[in-house]
Predict the structure of RNase H type-1 domain-containing protein.
Amino acid sequence: MRGGVVASRVLTQMSGPHHFPVAFYSQQIDPVAQGTPSCTRTLAAAALLLAKAKSLTLGHHTTVWTSHALSALLRKGTTQVFSAHRQQQLEAELLEDPNLTFARCGPLNPATLLPDLPVPPDSHDCVEVISSILRVREDLFDVPLANPDLIFFTDGSCFYSKGQRFTSYTVTSQWDVIEAASLPDNWGAQTAELYALARACQLATGKTVSIYTDSRYAFGVIHCHRKTHPAPCAGPPPFKRFADTLRRCHRPLQGPHPGGHSCHPGKRPG
């Protein structure tokens, strides 16, 4: 990857024990992939460049050498860096092709010898790296907590009636409505879902809490925000509200010794 933006690849063919270069490829990856960690950028680059090389490989067996564990990312990765549609597309292109094999190589491979390409870091566990980089806070989990102080369910909605848009959110427990209110009519459903999560975090200040949401988008934002800077996404809400949600999720929920909280997909019972 050149500057984390341009994907580069060398297509080689074996001749005896040696690799002989056949073609060189270089293409800029899309803005969504550019905002993700290097492991998932390489995943997007592999799919992009393999498609370009099909005119030469012609369906023959191809081995992809890289310092990243791409197959492990697709099989074991639980993050939502890419949309569900794109994740399925990557799995279909890279995992279900019987003529593709992924192999882990050292930091130095022919692609790193192209001009202006930095040498990548030493071998690492891609799944672990992605998990650590994208987690908002260390005590945030995507599975229910054991015996939490609170259990909240959140929802945000947006609908039109007689040409006017209405937006609202709700935070409930299993039996009671904790908070429900309308929101500005220029807010969409995704923004309302994020705001509901932010309010649930505020309402649980000082306690451990498991928060359920039926929004895959909001769930992905909470669990896949980069600590360094927000990654571009396919349909983000206004950045100000996006940042506010994450700022609230950084607040401790159990005083000076936070015991953690969780946010995971689910539906309100009944």
